[in-house]
Amino acid sequence: xxxxxxxxxxxxxxxxxxxxxxxxxxxxxxxxxxxxxxxxxxxxxxxxxxxxxxxxxxxxxxxxxxxxxxxxxxxxxxxxxxxxxxxxxxxxxxxxxxxxxxxxxxxxxxxxxxxxxxxxxxxxxxxxxxxxxxxxxxxxxxxxxxxxxxxxxxxxxxxxxxxxxxxxxxxxxxxxxxxxxxxxxxxxxxxxxxxxxxxxxxxxxxxxxxxxxxxxxxxxxxxxxxxxxxxxxxxxxxxxxxxxxxxxxxxxxxxxxxxxxxxxxxxxxxxxxxxxxxxxxxxxxxxxxxxxxxxxxxxxxxxxxxxxxxxxx
Length: 313
Known about the structure:
By secondary structure, the chain is an all-alpha fold. It contains 14 helices and no strands.
């Protein structure tokens, strides 16, 4: 297991490197610069600013310099938040985005898995149609529309929850639901389709013929074999929920990475854009590794194939 983990980590390093390289090059290729939006500055001041941030050097030299600093954990100074290092900004805002993302994951799994199981177990009934409708509605509504609707109802109309900020557990409820509801609909539809396929298998008919209760058949025999595709998507989905909450953070005035990233893109703050992108890439890599390890724990056939592959090599 340890050898497999180290192997996957080594495979993930080139992925992170490619993401960093492409992001760096795209920012340099796109016309304009980080200080073009400011008022017209004398050429001498522009030259001094570019020298300070090494923008006067060739692109390849800038890239190698940035890469060397990033390996040491230094993501450079922000161009727009003067006096602040990108590493410090991410250290301050990432825990907020992580908390929101993990709460959204709980919403996704807490709503999506029961809905998928109930829908498949009650196929072609009113409950099934209601679950499908709600899942489709969750997928169709963008998170910012869901967030706006929640604020309108629960804050302005019913006065049950605070509309914004991040000052306690009750402030998490609406943004987490707005962020996770759409993914919950996707998980429900995915699990339902896989459960229906598994429930038509021969061994399920054999289990029913033995007189097992339908609940036991669905939860003990069918669910374990139908949940694998859900586990597969949970890796990138979790990373996406943690880092991809930019719009929700902006709507609910949450002090996470989202507000900084939106400002960074608008102002062409290269180091901050690179920092957030690298965080996202690292999360994707480690989330996929976690999914593979979870596969190996719940399915002995995966461990057997991995062992056979090593012996064959």
